[in-house]
Amino acid sequence: MKKIRSQIVQGATEIIILQLLKEQPLTCEEAVQKIYSKFDVLLNHAFVFSLLGEFESEGIVFSDVAGQLVLTKKGDLLRTKLVENYTKLNEPIRSNLMKDFFLF
Asked: What number of other Cβ atoms are within 10 A of residue 55's Cβ?
């Protein structure tokens, strides 16, 4: 089960990080630790650092004076769009799994 959870978290890392940044500004280390505490999945720091660097260069986040990353309006719009798309893609899977699960 942990392997499946790890694969899901890795596949949704962008959405997860953007959602965490919506809640509060974070450093790379804080983002990795929050993901670990919420999902019991330890992501590679270099991967998260690289992703956050891409976000910053694309104007999705900016670095404040304390070195924490803050979600921009552009980032929040992207977060909303990604969450909507993720939900739309997963709803048919979820409903079919539940339907199959309850067929005896």
From this structure: 22
**How far is the C-alpha of 67 from the C-alpha of 70, rounded, in Å?**
9
- pLDDT score at 3: 83
> Which pair of tokens denotes residue 74?
């552009």
- 1, 85, 89, 94, 99 from 51: Cα distances, Å: 26, 20, 23, 28, 37
At residue 65, the 3 state secondary structure works out as coil
Model pLDDT for residues 19-62, shown as the tens digit of each residue: 999 999 999 999 999 999 999 999 999 999 999 999 999 999 99
H helices present in 1-104, as ranges: 2-11, 13-23, 28-39, 45-57, 73-101
> Which residues are within 8 A (CB) of 99 and not within 5 positions of it... i.e. 6 or more apart?
none
In this structure, what token pair is assigned to residue 94?
A: 């979820």
Which domains does the chain show, CATH number per domain? 2-101 (1.10.10.10)
